[in-house]
Every structure is written in structure tokens, then in C-alpha cells.
Write a structure and sequence with these properties.
single chain, alpha/beta, Glutaredoxin, two-stranded antiparallel sheet, 52% helix
């Protein structure tokens, strides 16, 4: 069973399965065999699998699969080639864009801006489908299933936006120039990590994430993983902090290819101390499953003497995904002592 869990965690099986279904559906449809009219439903099911896996991995493969897979589905729909090329393909591409655009460009869209973008894409896509169905006399109902992943994730952002905006407008409890509040949390290495034990030897970068269910947080961790050398050049310790149990955190960083430590704050003691939590009962009971609240994603850069030198903007919630805002501050702080392996 453990091997099965590790295999599932390491490989995006639903994404591969969805693509296989879509390729098979296209081949069956073009072959004109019996029940070929059902091929579009099989392809749309593949889009659903890819969309479901998007929350687990949120990587380049999922982005590519969403667009490639939906394009394949467009060619399984009933109608002429003109309708497929000029109506169905654009419609399905819009559905894929609605699923991916906010994750890919979180720095621009954030969690609260341009919330009309995805619904508009979904509506235009549906309009193109109905126009094709009207002109061809055969309604492509199956393709609407491919819109569901984008609709679900868009609906989640719209529902959450007022809560996260209200919480962000209050700012965090810790401010630039404050001494970083000390804490001690368990890590994915099986050790307990105390923040102030790193001072005055090394600066520390804290990355607060909402949880493994959050695609934007996956992007955050991957982004800092790609730029970790910039921090390691100054001997900065990178620590992720999330509300999930250690096992979930470990599975997440293995799946995402993240090398730095993740700490578990299941009781929200540190998250609350830093002011990185808000209440959204619907989200807490569905996607997150946390009774204590929902964490706000944030990045804190603390110098080697324990003074907070940078905090990602609480109002511009997409800033946590943009290390370019932190690099000027990183260049100004004093480098820490060299280490071969991050002390724990």
C-alpha cells in the first residue's frame, strides 16, 4: 500500500489517463466506428481528469495537457471541420485558459483581481459551442463537461475573494523592522525547528502556504525552488510553513520537487502569531478542511539578527509569487555563515 501511495504521489496518473482517453476518443471518432458519437463524452471525461489533477501538481505538464487535451476533444465533436476549427477549438481553448490563467499569471491576477476574466472566457466558449451546434444542427453537449474544471476553480476564487481581501487589508501582525516572533515546529526531516536558533548565524526566509490543496501555493514553492540559489548565495535558510500534517507536507514537497524544509503548524499557533489567517467557513469545510481558519500565503525575509526586512504585500496577494520583489532586499542584508546542509 505504501508503494502505491508513493507511486500515486510521484506521478500524475490522472493527467496521463486523461490524455490517453482523449487520444483514444479522437481516434475512435475519426475511425467512424459504432457508437463513435460517444467519443466526445470520453474525451470530456479526460478533460475532467486533467482538471482534477491540476490541483495536485500545478506544473507545466498540467498546463500543456489542459490545452492539448481540450483541443483533441474539439475534434471529436459532431459537425464539419470548419465548425471544429473555428468554433469548437477556440471554445475548448478558452475553457483550458479559464482553468490555468490565474495560476500561471498569479502575479497579475492575484487571488482577488479580474475575477470576471474566467467567467467571461467560459461564457464566450459556451457561446461558440452553441453557435456551432445551431449551425450544424447537432449540439455538442459533451464539450460542456470540459468547462467544469475551469468553472470550479473560478467559482472557488470568486467565493473566497471577499474574505481574503478583507483579511489582507488589515495587514499582517508582524511588520518590517520587528523582531520575528520565535517559534518551534516539527519538520519533514523528523526534527523540531526553532526559528531563533538560526540567529545570529543565518538569515531565514519563511514561506507561509495555505496547504497542499492550494494550486497557487504549489506555484509559490516551485518558484522559490527555482530561485533558491539566490538565497543560498547569502546562506539564507529557507523554511516553508503550512497547516497540513507532516505526512501531507512531505508528500507535497516530494511531488513538487522542492528541496527545502517544510514545517507543520496544524494548530495555527505560528500562523496566527504572524497574523496570516482568516475565516472562510465554506472553504474550511470543503477544500481545506481546517477548523482553525485559512492561512494567507506570504513570504518573510529575516536577517541574521532576527529582524524582519521584507514581507510580501498583504493587499497585493500575488506578490508572494514574485521573488523579484524580494531580491533588492536580499542584496542589502548581511550574508550568513556558510553551511553545507541547512541546520535543523
Amino acid at each position: 500500500m505504501e508503494r502505491v501511495k508513493r507511486f500515486w504521489n510521484q506521478y500524475p496518473i490522472p493527467t496521463y489517463g486523461g490524455l490517453l482517453l482523449q487520444v483514444g476518443a479522437l481516434g475512435y471518432s475519426l475511425g467512424g466506428w459504432s457508437y463513435a458519437s460517444y467519443a466526445a463524452w470520453v474525451g470530456a471525461l479526460g478533460s475532467g481528469l486533467i482538471g482534477a489533477d491540476f490541483q495536485r501538481f500545478t506544473g507545466p505538464l498540467q498546463y500543456a495537457a489542459a490545452f492539448i487535451g481540450n483541443t483533441l476533444v474539439a475534434f471529436t465533436l459532431p459537425g464539419s471541420w470548419l465548425a471544429r476549427l473555428f468554433l469548437y477549438v477556440p471554445a475548448l481553448v478558452l475553457f483550458a485558459t479559464a482553468l490555468t490563467i490565474r495560476q500561471r499569471f498569479m502575479r497579475i491576477f492575484t487571488r482577488t483581481r479580474y475575477l470576471w476574466a474566467e467567467p467571461l472566457m467560459l461564457l464566450v466558449g459556451a457561446g461558440l459551442l452553441f453557435l456551432g451546434g445551431y449551425s450544424e444542427g447537432v449540439w455538442p453537449w459533451a464539450s460542456l463537461v470540459a468547462a467544469l474544471p475551469g468553472a470550479v476553480i473560478s467559482g472557488a476564487y470568486i467565493q473566497d475573494a471577499p474574505y481574503i481581501a478583507a483579511a489582507a487589508s488589515r495587514g499582517y501582525a508582524v511588520k518590517v523592522g520587528d523582531v520575528a516572533p520565535d517559534f518551534e515546529l516539527p519538520s519533514t526531516k523528523g526534527t523540531w525547528v526553532r526559528l531563533h536558533s538560526y540567529f545570529p548565524r543565518n538569515p531565514v526566509l519563511l514561506l507561509f502556504v495555505r496547504g497542499d490543496w492550494c494550486p497557487g501555493c504549489h506555484m509559490m514553492l516551485r518558484t522559490y525552488e527555482r530561485h533558491k540559489h539566490r538565497f543560498y548565495e547569502k546562506n539564507v535558510i529557507i523554511l516553508g510553513i503550512g497547516p497540513d500534517p507532516l505526512g501531507v507536507n512531505q508528500a507535497m514537497i516530494e511531488r513538487l520537487g522542492v528541496s527545502f524544509l517544510m514545517l507543520s503548524d496544524e494548530n495555527f499557533t505560528v500562523i496566527r502569531r504572524y497574523g496570516n489567517a482568516y475565516q472562510n467557513e465554506f472553504l474550511q469545510k470543503t477544500a481545506a478542511g481546517y477548523e482553525a481558519g485559512i492561512p494567507l500565503p506570504a513570504a518573510y525575509l529575516i536577517d541574521r539578527y532576527g529582524i524582519v526586512r521584507y514581507i510580501s504585500s498583504s493587499e497585493y496577494v500575488g506578490e508572494f509569487l514574485d521573488p523579484n520583489t524580494i531580491f533588492p532586499v536580499l542584496e542589502q542584508i548581511e550574508a550568513g555563515e556558510p553551511y553545507e546542509v541547512a541546520p535543523v
